[in-house]
Design brief:
With 707 residues, this protein is of the alpha+beta class.
């Protein structure tokens, strides 16, 4: 009997993990974990290949069963961290004479400091567009090549409006065996310096990424899998490997992106702060109204035009080692047991622990010499970690991935506790408290940044080390938390369930309806190039009133008829989810609106109407603390939108505060928060109602601004 299987592979710093998910039932039908192959001649591709082959063969999955395969990659991030980059030649283009002075200066990006003592080396030349014929391009490219350039960037002033000259450079360079990055391929935003810098970063990792991509793709094909190989992007979507070869920079931070998509799709974590806790580091980010928080990535202190998840990476995790001096606990991390090449005490068999003695050491040259380890009678060294402390205090339960031998942890913790002059339990508590000191400000900062009310903060733990940090942090901060089944492979689940995603950004003052239609078409075209089936694509429009930037986000599937990966929930289950989100009894909630696609629940709390919009899969799509909802047919939309807008306007310090509106139409939930005026709102919304049947119902939600 044939099955339809989705395969997701996450490449972590220590392990590469694969999962196979039944496309019809959402059941995990296979897993595989191997060591990440950093030192292999094929790089991390070798581990990806081994992992997915093991996952298929060990679980009886035939190549023909696979309808989707994707993997995240650390390659782009690691290449930049380690300085494993190519020398870049930038060919700037624009006006000649005095008019070209500014564009020449703006495209002459200096060497890019990667913040690790390494840099991307750059040389630059400038070609007036009047001379950008075959001869002029040939001369400029050869000049850059003679200067040591291994890869090229073509960046033209106003190339986002017309990139014909950039394309001519691409054709010539590729014909002559050079890899090239086109600035207008990377971003459609004005800002020649930022666009050129982003393209230079992209170009610098092209050779490394191409080798990995080609090796992985070849192995997938040789195994008999014929569906497109998709690669995880840093903004939470996937793209076809052919597109990744053009824009590998988009894969930065794809590991954290995979974990949040796993939390979204598998756990229905519609709102909350998520943790991906590994052995060495913890990634912390935000999910709000069913969407991850996204912003521009920063490389070497410079903002790029690369969209990635807004993630804070902390050097504290399940395997972080303890530092102590002068009879006091100094710190926890950033070095981990993995870096020190030592076992965790809690994962050491009790029979192997004999005569434990406290030692201090420096894990790596240049590190402080106050890291703690325990020397055993056999001469073996083990370390004290957050996982040891959490096991001792009972935060790690039976069945948790972080569960270990509590007695081993206790006997190894005692020499450190004696040094500190406290009990074993107090020593463990101090270790977790020191870690929590680093985590708590990040949680508070994200809650303030994304306006998440204190009683709406829920922590979602992912990664193998989640129970080492999360329960103690939640208890200390008096927050709700959850650590799901399969937390240790949630990133792989996220890769398997991710949608094709592409983004177009343009600055358009006073956009018209035609402008909105054009940018939506452009985003849809990019999503199709990235592997999405046209009929599956939905495009969300956002407008930043401060910068006049229009963002079109296209999401689609690789399948013509997508299978619902989650079972539908009925009104009773939806009420339970909404009540938990509001921290109210279910009996306090009303359901004033429901249809075949959505439920709206409301309740009065603190003299304001709390509102939750849930879809029929149980996702909370809108979560607001002062809101209302109405339903109407498409033929009266302008009247109803204007009525909602005016009723939800508010004032503070004599300043008008515009409301946030959400439109539920044809199964989509469109966010029109931050729209600057009613006129602008009608222009954008009008493109959504253009093809709607006059009698078809929609839901409109209005919320007073939280600013």
């Amino acid at each position: 009997m044939s099955r339809e299987i989705r395969v997701g592979i996450d490449v972590g710093g220590t392990h590469t993990k694969a999962v196979a998910i039944d496309n019809a039932t959402h059941e995990i039908v296979g897993q595989s974990i191997v060591m990440t192959s950093h030192d292999h001649e094929l790089g991390v591709a070798a581990g990806v290949i081994e992992c997915f082959k093991n996952c298929l063969t060990a679980n009886g999955i035939k190549p023909d069963d696979v309808v989707f395969i994707a993997h995240s990659t650390t390659q782009a991030t690691n290449a930049l961290l380690e300085g494993d980059v190519a020398k870049v030649g930038i060919l700037g283009m624009g006006p000649g004479g005095l008019g070209g002075i500014l564009s020449k200066k703006q495209s002459a990006v200096p060497d890019i400091d990667l913040g690790t003592g390494r840099k991307i080396e750059i040389n630059h030349t400038y070609l007036p567009v009047k001379k950008a014929d075959d001869k002029g391009i040939e001369g400029a490219v050869e000049q850059l090549r003679d200067g040591g350039a291994q890869v090229l960037v073509a960046s033209q002033a106003f190339g986002v409006d017309s990139n014909d000259d950039e394309e001519r450079v691409r054709v010539y360079a590729e014909k002559n065996g050079m890899m090239v990055s086109i600035a207008s391929d990377i971003s459609k935003l004005y800002g020649l310096t930022s666009r050129t810098r982003t393209a230079a970063i992209n170009a610098s990792i092209l050779p490394k990424m191409m080798n990995t991509a080609n090796s992985t793709e070849s192995a997938v094909r040789s195994s008999g899998i014929n569906v497109p190989l998709m690669i995880m992007r840093g903004d939470g979507g996937v793209m076809d490997i052919g597109e990744m070869k053009k824009r590998p920079v988009l894969t930065m931070l794809s590991g954290p992106a995979a974990s949040v998509i796993g939390a979204l799709m598998y756990l229905r974590a519609s709102n909350g702060i998520y943790f991906e806790v590994g052995g060495t580091s913890t990634n912390i980010g935000v999910i709000k109204n069913g969407r991850p928080a996204v912003e521009y990535a920063v490389v070497g202190g410079h903002r790029t035009y690369v969209n990635s998840l807004d993630v804070t990476v902390l050097g504290v995790a399940g395997g972080s080692m303890v530092r102590a001096a002068n009879g006091k606990l100094v710190d926890v991390g950033p070095r981990s047991a993995h870096i020190a090449g030592a076992k965790y005490a809690v994962y050491t068999p009790f029979k192997d622990i004999d005569e434990p003695e406290l030692e201090f050491f420096a894990p790596k040259a240049g590190d402080p010499g106050d890291y703690v380890r325990i020397r055993l009678a056999s001469g073996e060294r083990v370390t004290i970690t957050n996982s040891c402390a959490a096991n001792i205090l009972g935060y790690v339960k039976d069945g948790d991935y972080s569960r270990g031998n509590v007695e081993s942890a206790r006997i190894c913790m005692k020499p450190l506790a004696d040094y500190l002059g406290v009990s074993i339990e107090e020593c463990a508590r101090q270790i977790l408290a020191k870690s929590c000191e680093k985590v708590a400000p990040v949680i508070t900062g994200f809650a303030e940044k994304y306006k998440i009310e204190a009683d709406q903060i829920s922590l979602v733990g992912c990664g193998g080390g989640a129970s080492a940090l999360l329960p103690f942090t939640a208890e200390t901060m008096k927050l709700n938390y959850s650590i799901p089944e399969y937390a240790e492979v949630i990133s792989s689940i996220g890769v398997a369930l991710a949608m094709v995603r592409d983004v177009v950004e343009r600055v358009v003052p006073n956009p018209t309806g035609a402008d909105i239609v054009d940018i939506k078409k452009e985003a849809k075209t990019l999503a199709i190039k990235s592997g999405a089936v046209p009929d599956s694509i939905e495009v969300q429009i956002e407008i930043d009133p401060q910068t006049n930037k229009i963002t079109a986000i296209a999401l689609g599937s690789t399948e013509v008829q997508t299978t619902d990966l989650l079972k539908a929930c009925d009104e009773k289950e939806a009420r339970t989810l909404a009540a938990a989100s509001m921290n109210l009894p279910e009996s306090d909630l009303e359901c004033p609106i429901s249809n075949d696609l959505f439920y709206v629940f409301t309740a009065v709390k603190n003299q304001k109407t709390q509102l939750r919009l849930l879809d029929k899969k149980g996702f909370i799509k809108v979560q607001r603390g002062d809101a209302k909802a109405v339903t109407f047919t498409g033929d009266v939309w302008e009247e109803e939108v204007e009525k909602m807008w005016k009723s939800m306007l508010s004032y503070k310090n004599e300043m008008e505060r515009t409301p946030d509106l959400y439109l539920c139409i044809e199964g989509k939930v469109l966010d029109f928060a931050n729209t600057i005026s009613l006129e602008q709102l009608k222009i954008i919304m009008g493109t959504e109602f253009a093809g709607l049947a006059p009698g078809e119902s929609v839901i409109l939600i209005g919320a007073r601004s939280e600013m």
